[in-house]
Amino acid sequence: MDTPALTGGRAHPGPTWQRLGRLSRDQLERLVGRVGATPVAAVTVTVDGRRCEVLLKLEGHNPGGSVKDRTALSLVRGLETAGTLHPGDTLVESTSGNLGVALAFIARARGYRFHAVVDPHVTAENLSTLRELGALVDVVDSADENGNYLRARLRRVRELCAADPRYVWTDQYGSAHNPLAHYATTAPELDAQAGGRLQAVVVAVSTGGTLAGIGRYFRERRPGVRIVAVDVAGSVALAGRPAPRLLTGIGSSQRSRFATDDLYDETVFVSELTAVATVATVRERTGIRIGGSGGAALAAAAVVARDHGLSRVACVCPDDGRKYEGSLFNDRWLREHGLADWSGTLPFTDLTRSPSVPAVVR
């Protein structure tokens, strides 16, 4: 990832996720040990004449290219510890892409099979990686009234588990090991990298596990830090109104079971157009490539900084923007989906690299 101004974490040679399918089981097992310890990049946004430093937690530096590596590892370890998962079993999960890639490479490293249930919104990049890793892939095509596929994916997962007792559902939507991953690793890493000096942490929501884990950690350790949930229009993850959505990795067509009101202070809804505009601006101004959920989180960080007069916040950027070369960074795709005209959509007037940390290019 082209990431200037990095601090903390390890400089993983990458992007590793693009070559996972060519690695041996032993090599994949070594990569499992490298999940986490992701770097932070500092940028400065200017909003209404005020500057705010935003620390971007770059989860795309995980071996599988996203924060879902942490979630997947925690889910699998939880099943192993409980004695639910045995050699030769098949893990199965409903996924928009990133968790599927994470589970596929961890399953292969551990000697399990993996069956991914995806939908037509999965990116070509993630779909290719899943297949290279030997995952079985089901693409459901039965959308709900808003063009979303989660109910169909979950229905297919249940059918597979009912048909074969060797199928084990990791259940990212309900397992306590999802938020535990971020309480135990993501949040303390970010806290340490920020030197304990944060006014707010901004987190995009899908299942809500990342938000819940980070929120719980900061509530216990640094209760003065404002926790901000970010969602997109059309998502009901945080009780919004259902509508068609395009972006993957943020939003959901069902309510989060993890994101309870006591774990965060406010919700910022960001339009998909604003998220895309922010992603493009970050790449143009800094060379950093983040996905749509990271763009939404950064846009929300600017809003929060403006509304509360903050000068130092952090946001989690869940994945590597190179997973979206065929969509978010493809002019034809943007035009086809009405996302090419960004005029007036950015919540900040300027964005630059922060001079407060030395530049490290990966």
UniProtKB/TrEMBL annotation:
Keywords: Pyridoxal phosphate. Residues 35-318 form the Tryptophan synthase beta chain-like PALP domain. Its cofactor is pyridoxal 5'-phosphate. GO terms for molecular function: transferase activity, transferring alkyl or aryl (other than methyl) groups. GO terms for biological process: cysteine biosynthetic process from serine. CDD domains: CBS_like (cd01561). InterPro entries: Cys_Synth/Cystath_Beta-Synth, P-phosphate_BS, TrpB-like_PALP, TrpB-like_PALP_sf. This is Cystathionine beta-synthase/cysteine synthase A. It comes from Micromonospora olivasterospora. The lineage of its organism: Bacteria, Bacillati, Actinomycetota, Actinomycetes, Micromonosporales.
